[in-house]
Amino acid sequence: MTSPDVPGAIDRATDPAADPGARHGSSQVDTNPYRGLLPDLPAYACTNCGHWQRWPAPGPQVCPVCADVRNALPEDGFEFVTDKQADELVTGFWRPAPVDGVTEFGTEPRFGLDSRGWVVETDIGLVGFECAPWYTADMLAELRRMADAHGGFPVLASSHVHGYGALWQLQAELEPRVVCVNVHDLPWTKAFRVTWPADDVLTLAPDLTLHRTGGHFPGHSVLHDSRRGILFCGDSLKVDLDDAGDPVALSAHKAFHAQIPLSHGELREMLAVVAELDFGVVATPFEMVPGVTTDHVVHLVQRLLSGPPDAAPVPLADL
């Protein structure tokens, strides 16, 4: 059963908040139909970008994310670590995000791309969007405590591969019934199992809707929290901050490291989506930034459409 307003929407009929046996820690019979379907292979993380992949021992030779045009190659060659090694390299933290009802999870020191995991409180339980590079035992214990306090952890999703982090670990540890990325980005998901491939629009929870923008990746998607006015924008935007952490410039890229701009067709596709969403805060896979609004992003894209493709940052004051 789906929402009559949004084709393909997730509602309580398919949500584990209505099925206590599907939640972690339940004494009822396990009803998760997706357990055990991944290959029983070790997971390895690329130390350059943090991407996890399952591979037979002794491990992979090349990271597909770093080899892709959208990321930088490691100057000293590829190096991979196991889950046990990653656990020894980092410590975890969590803290309230700048907007109530959202918690940020991350690790120190920097590992890979240094992504953040956003955990959003909703009417059906917790929704995770993007993931930290690794989750320590303390981080997992906090997520379980939060899930018990807020009605479970039914949904885990991500914008694209640069935000996956240790998504595979949360699927194994917390067993959300819905693990969602856009159907076009399935080739990057070998470390975990996608249980709900998203099309262009998918409501994950009340007031929380996934929209495909494309551009940076074919399936790149943003998550709009209409209740809080947040756009979890993935890598559709790059936000430049000043020393105080305030936003000073915006840009958009096909590939940030190579400074490849989006095409005009990709920009028009992005504009058609973002212009319809009301927000005053953006959250990339790396930071949450109040003060970046729908108008700022619309004016940025319109400016980029007015001339040759450009990846240079545009001052926020000019938007």
Automatic annotation (TrEMBL):
Top-level taxon of the source organism: Bacteria
Region entry Disordered, spans: 1-32
Pfam families in alphabetical order: Lactamase_B
InterPro entries: Metallo-B-lactamas, RibonucZ/Hydroxyglut_hydro
Metallo-beta-lactamase domain: residues covered: 187-272
PANTHER family: METALLO-BETA-LACTAMASE FAMILY PROTEIN (AFU_ORTHOLOGUE AFUA_5G12770)
The name this protein goes by in its record: Metallo-beta-lactamase domain-containing protein
Higher taxonomy: Bacteria, Bacillati, Actinomycetota, Actinomycetes, Geodermatophilales
